[in-house]
Amino acid sequence: MADSNVELQHLSNSELIAMARTGLHSAFNELMLRHRKQAFQWAYQYTDDPYLAEDIVQEALINAFLYLGNLEHIEKFIPWFRKIITNQALMHLRRGGPHGKERPFSSLIQQHSEHNDEYGSPIELLLSKFARQRSEMNDTLNDPAKIWLRQETSNLIHSMLQCLNAKEREIFDAYFFKLYTPQEISTMTSTSSSNVYTILSRSRRKIQQQQFHSNLTTYLQSRASDPVKNSKVILASKSLYFGEIWDTFSLCVLHALQYSQSPFNLPSSSTMAEIMGFTGQAFRLQINQRHLDLFEASAFNWRRTFTKGLLNLGYAARSIGDGQHIPQTSDLLIEAFNFIHNTLDQGQPVIVWGYVHPYFALIHGYDDTKKLFHITGLFEQQTMDYRELGLDWGADLFILSLGTPYPVTAMDSLRGALSMIIMHNEGFEGSIHPDYVQGIAAYDVWITLLSREDIDPLAHAYQICWTSNTRLFAFQFLESIAERTADYGDIICKLASQAAVYYKHAAETLYHLRKLYPFPAGGHHSCPSTRAKGILLLEQVKSYEQQGLDILKKVLNNL
């Protein structure tokens, strides 16, 4: 059906969706135009910032376009689209409040502080100064020194604006230098206010990238001028893990251990179950009290948890970043490059978050001449451009190396692991956000959410797969402990064997839940009988894990 034969604006949502699914872009555009204002309001409720909200809407529109074909019930388009907006907003807000460590322009304008180091981005700080009231700026005109400094600052910013096209520069200049409101700019440029917001947001990103490229060039030039520095290091590829694994951090640890030359243990012999067990990852669960989302599995303090877990494997890990969002102009990114280069020069790979997808990946080489990293992970890509670090998912910066090996006894490793497992499951670990509940109590939240009809099917199916996979490793880990009588003695091994039985039952029950809510479609949750079965299965899992945890407490008391 051609555009010319249909008045799209008179069609219903269902008709537009049906046409959009056939590939008619104009139908999708009409659908989004019809709901864009509402989408912006949904996003703004989370961000309290128009530019960040606009960014979220833009990204949500892309996701809606990509996954419109997966919408089972056309009449539920509005709640489906709102869920996309919500998940996209939560991705931005996952750590650290409305903006994390990123401060969008309007946030700087509205919340200007005397503490300059809070902004994280020099260019944004400078721009915030230009966005103050005219009367405040006019007060400086009688001071020659301040006039000169202001001129130098203006020149610096204008040099950064060369990356913008004529339209973007016109709007950017009108807003930050001439202090027109977006509504005034809309009238002046004969464009909509929403388009002004979009252009300002896009311009901000371009300027950040321009500054980052400048900083990266300077850093690489300094490396090239140092005769001691290498320009290329690629560590030999190691064998991969081919079993099912949803915890990409543990997968990266398994690969990283193969490069270790620890004199105190044999890391290359570590199994995935041992890594998942000793780091506590096999026993984790955190659920958002408000709704199920895709970030629950990783919603915890990475630096603290991973560092403690790796100590149980005999490594004092080193890391940079704390998993919070940073602007690409942050100096921390250049520190991250230096950390990666130095670690690889020492023969160790580096674990990095979100370099390609929202997964952990392993960087095992670099090439400064080509500006490429060599990477390994749950994707086909083998190299990645330097310029991608700090973009998209990677803006939640977290980089870790195994660090320094140190001697650890089998008893100390198990004691450390069980302490982490019990603290987490009893809710004493401390959550990064008050909405998240951890450990055994999280099952009660999950059950409550499951009783609702409006859960996110993808997020729910993902959570089930993640949890069932980790509990299988929990069972395997405890089984391996039960077999090590020479290290732990008969009493510990007998108790570990008893606990393993309960985690095996939990894993098997979660597998049944997995078949009820298959990934990624999520099953038929709208059916009351399906919900009832799901709730019953979760109650059984909780009971099994509580009994297993009680035995693990006895193990710890006997260590």
TrEMBL record:
SUPFAM superfamilies: Sigma2 domain of RNA polymerase sigma factors (SSF88946), Sigma3 and sigma4 domains of RNA polymerase sigma factors (SSF88659). It holds the Pfam family Sigma70_r2. GO terms for biological process: DNA-templated transcription initiation; response to stress. Residues 155-207 form the RNA polymerase sigma factor 70 region 4 type domain. InterPro entries: RNA_pol_sigma-70-like (IPR039425), RNA_pol_sigma-70_dom (IPR014284), RNA_pol_sigma70_ECF_CS (IPR000838), RNA_pol_sigma70_r2 (IPR007627), RNA_pol_sigma70_r4_t2 (IPR013249), RNA_pol_sigma_r2 (IPR013325), RNA_pol_sigma_r3/r4-like (IPR013324), WH-like_DNA-bd_sf (IPR036388). Residues 32-95 form the RNA polymerase sigma-70 region domain. Keywords: DNA-binding, Sigma factor, Transcription, Transcription regulation. One of its GO terms (molecular function) is sigma factor activity. It comes from the Bacteria. PROSITE patterns: SIGMA70_ECF (PS01063). Belongs to the sigma-70 factor family. ECF subfamily. PANTHER family: RNA POLYMERASE ECF-TYPE SIGMA FACTO, RNA POLYMERASE SIGMA FACTOR HI_1459-RELATED. This is RNA polymerase sigma factor.
